[in-house]
Amino acid sequence: MRTDRLAVVAGYVAGFALLFLIWHLAATLLVKSVLFPPPLPVLERAIVLIEDNILQEQIVASMRRILQGFLIGSAIGIPIGLAIGSFRIVRWLLEPWTEFFRFIPAVAMITVAVIWFGIGEESKVFLIAYTTVFVVIISTAAGVGAVGRDKIRAAQCLGASRLQVFALVALPATVPYILTGMRLAMANAFVTIVAAELVASNDGLGKLLWDARLFMQIEDIFVALVALGLLGFATDRVFRLLIRAFAGRFNATV
Amino acid sequence: MALVTLEGVGKTYRGRTGAWEAVRDFTLDLAEGEFFCLLGTSGCGKTTVLNMVAGFEQPTAGRILLDGRPVDRPGADRGVVFQGHDSLYDWLTALDNIAFGLRLRGMGRGERRAKAEHYLKMVGLTGQGAKHPSELSGGMKQRIQIARALANDPRILLMDEPFGALDAMTRAVLQGELSRIWAETRKTVLFITHDIEEAVALATRVGVMKRGPGGTLKAVIPIDLPFPRERTSDAFMAAFREVHALIHDEIHGAH
Ligand SMILES: Nc1ncnc2c1ncn2[C@@H]1O[C@H](COP(=O)(O)OP(=O)(O)OP(=O)(O)O)[C@@H](O)[C@H]1O
Ligand SMILES: [Mg+2]
């Protein structure tokens, strides 16, 4: 177990090192253009931005919006998904909604969101919640549908009431699906927040990208891109750990 | 009075492909403490019968009584061991799986733990209670299923080919253990199989089913051999041949 984990971490470090090495070689040997800076100047610029507290502020601004919208979207999506998965009537009623709205991407809603909520926090949080909610609903409902028939029957002939079947069997069996849905939604949230901040915002990583383009600060653009990649990578790791913990071994309840 | 009574039970499935009479006029009394093996070829309706006794499905004819009361839904008085092991809860440890029924009844943590440990020991898995189903072999999972059903102390244990998916050696070991557990607890068992040797090794009575459509009980043969059973003994062979003759007709279509 231990050595496994070390190997994984070592692999990641090597992988990232390789990525930066290729970037460096490509920038210094192949492209040789001021429009494609090698990693070192980008890192230097990042340090300046960090010392001036600018990078942190943009990261915090973006991540706060993501987290707020993501939590609101999940809090709405999970119970609706559970209800759709559990009751046929709810499915018939709500499936047209989810099937309709999930094809209207959040980026297409930016205009409406800004008209409704202005360019402040509300519009961003709304957009993130919007992009989260349908993905979470669909995978939660699918999870409820995928609970093995024998698992439910076993509980019934051990004396479980309907409520107990739901709370002690259907719900825990669905948790990995819920987490998977949230993981996908988180990836969407990154897309959405950058788009929203590019279009209308006073701060955030998207705004950093936009300003850098305006003033042709090419290093700033790369700082923002790398920051997005690293943040996304870190959040996704957290979800993968959670999913693994629930998928089998680590949690006990008696 | 019989513990379980099936009176002229029939089951007709209706679906897209029309009506299919899986079971017809199935009549049987199960006595308290007996080990009844229901034997039949694939598709003759064994699972259908067990599912109706369990209350998972409703008969379309006749009725099923438990302690004289009609069965109409699953309940804690009928413990079920399923053929596959998808019925175990992956997110719980082996011990928590065994204690699941006790937890449903609101039994205290300490008490249900002690009880679960007792049944863990009974199925020969002492010390393995902290493992999750994903960390157990197929044979171990079936042991856990048996322990889970027994821990709930049902009136009858319903087993649908519980060893069907196991290799021959593991199956023989588990048959021996089940036989020992039955001798210890004298729990009434309805056991489904299509393995003649398994039936003769375990049962106090073997019921042979006739092929469907309209699968029904063709004959019931008592197996009056002492436990533990000696599979190479002449008496065992004789019983095996008797059951085999009945099943042979089913396999080869003579009636
Ligand atoms: N839900 C269902 N709908 C329609 N037909 C069914 C259904 N369940 C079972 N049958 C049919 O009823 C018959 C008996 O099925 P059953 O599962 O009871 O057989 P079995 O004796 O348990 O067979 P096996 O040994 O292969 O498990 C089969 O012909 C099957 O096709
Ligand atoms: Mg069957």
UniProtKB/TrEMBL annotation, chain B:
It holds the Pfam family ABC_tran. The keyword Transport applies. SMART domains: AAA. SUPFAM superfamilies: P-loop containing nucleoside triphosphate hydrolases. Residues 4-236 form the ABC transporter domain. GO terms for molecular function: ATP binding; ATP hydrolysis activity. Keywords: ATP-binding, Nucleotide-binding, Transport. The keyword Nucleotide-binding applies. Transmembrane segments: none annotated. Coiled coil: none annotated. Belongs to the ABC transporter superfamily. PANTHER family: ALIPHATIC SULFONATES IMPORT ATP-BINDING PROTEIN SSUB, TAURINE IMPORT ATP-BINDING PROTEIN-RELATED. This is ABC transporter ATP-binding protein. It comes from Neoroseomonas oryzicola. The lineage of its organism: Bacteria, Pseudomonadati, Pseudomonadota, Alphaproteobacteria, Acetobacterales.
